[in-house]
Write a structure and sequence with these properties.
- This protein is an alpha/beta fold and 303 residues long.
- The chain contains 10 helices and 14 strands.
- The strands form 3 sheets. Strands 6-7-10-8-11-12-13-14 form an 8-stranded mixed beta sheet, sandwiched between helices.
- Strand 4 and strand 5 form a beta hairpin.
């Protein structure tokens, strides 16, 4: 009887802790629709502030909250629909004075909002790319609840919206997902591959069970964690369905998402595929290898 009670207690403990852990895959930063000013960065001598205007949450960036910062690109803030009906906020970034040939739809990582995430992609703007970044349900100014069940629907809605824009017609259309967004990008690409020319994932993982149990050494604890982590969608289960070019970028020094997960995804992917091994921190590739990545993306659009 004691042994049975102990087993039930252990299972109950794992059930409740795994429910909490399932929620911790996502770390959104949510803004109230009435928010007008957000401090992006602050030091003793300098700060950058975003001031929002209108129903589309159009931002203006100010130095020290006073001087408008001149951008080398245009930024158009829009509100569009997820396929679950939620209103989502996105930004179309366009380089000034450059005729764009490719449109990148960016799926950002699990934390923050586009305000903190969009700058990662700016290094691709001078490469003849325009980039659409957006927030998932429950992130930033996007409505709804930040739940994994919503995210694939959000991604599909983003594909539909971007494809419908007049300024996207005639360009090559690539999904670029980073970290958590890379896993999501593969799951969305499997459903929307007829709408895209290729998919790039950087520093991404294989599936939620692998990610949640990685690093756990105790066999029992590892098994139980995998048992209770819910897998709403899995890149390892769908990547073989994608018949468009895939580029997987991963750092051998990545301490957030294990390098082995990037290699495993590559092994399961169909041709045409390419693996770009880099060095440096998690999601650092575009700081050092923007030219190389841009060149490989352009080749994807030709295949």
């Amino acid at each position: 009887m004691k042994k049975s009670t102990t087993s039930i207690a252990i299972i109950a403990l794992f059930f409740f802790s795994s429910c909490a852990f399932n929620n911790k895959f996502l770390a959104p930063r949510k803004y109230d629709s009435n928010t007008k000013v957000i401090t992006m960065s602050k030091s003793k001598t300098d700060s950058t502030v975003a001031v929002y205007n209108g129903n589309n949450f159009q931002p203006t960036f100010l130095k020290n909250g006073i001087d408008t910062i001149a951008l080398t690109y245009t930024l158009e803030s829009v509100v569009f629909k997820s396929t679950n009906g939620n209103n989502l906020n996105g930004w179309m970034l366009k380089p000034k004075g450059i005729a764009v040939t490719h449109t990148i739809l960016h799926f950002h990582g699990n934390g923050g909002s586009i305000l903190g995430q969009f700058s990662i992609m700016k290094n691709l703007l001078p490469k003849d790319f325009q980039i659409f970044v957006f927030d998932y349900s429950g992130y930033g100014f996007s409505k709804g609840e930040a739940k994994r069940q919503n995210m694939v629907k959000d991604g599909m809605g983003a594909v539909d919206y971007v494809k419908s824009r007049e300024d996207v017609k005639g360009t090559k259309f690539i999904i670029y997902g980073q970290s958590y967004g890379g896993h999501l990008a593969l799951c969305v690409a499997a459903k929307k591959q007829n709408d895209i020319n290729g998919v790039v994932v950087e520093g991404t993982f294989t599936n939620h069970k692998d990610l949640g149990s990685d690093g756990i050494k105790n066999p029992f604890t590892k098994t139980m964690s995998r048992l209770f982590i819910r897998e709403f969608y899995s890149a390892t289960k769908v990547i073989h369905k994608i018949n468009k070019p895939i580029l997987i970028v991963h750092s051998s020094e990545d301490r957030v998402i294990p390098f082995k997960m990037g290699k495993k995804l590559f092994e399961k992917a169909n041709e045409p595929k390419e693996f770009l091994q880099v060095k440096g921190e998690h999601l650092y590739a575009l700081n050092e290898h923007a030219d190389t990545i841009a060149e490989k993306i352009k080749k994807m659009g030709e295949q």
